[in-house]
Amino acid sequence: MYSYYFLSALGPHMQKYLWWKKYLTRMQIIQFLSIMAYNAGLYTFNCNFPRLFMLYVIADVTLFLYLFLMFYKRTYEQKLKPKVHIN
Hints:
This protein is mainly alpha-helical and about 90 residues long. It has helices at about 1-10, 20-45, 50-75. It is elongated, with a radius of gyration of 18 Å.
């Protein structure tokens, strides 16, 4: 992720090398789902870990997951729809 930010900060001439942005976003979504599943397992099986913290992590990751899903939808799924031009 930080490699992408570094390369994109170098300027518009780097855009042709950033074709993997979509895949990076997908990996981050998978990461959030994994974190949620792990914390849900900790909470469900009553592991020796503070339950309030597990709920906080689940809520926090849920928010990030929502934001990344909205970004993904707006950025990549909108491009699939044909644009209507009004003259």
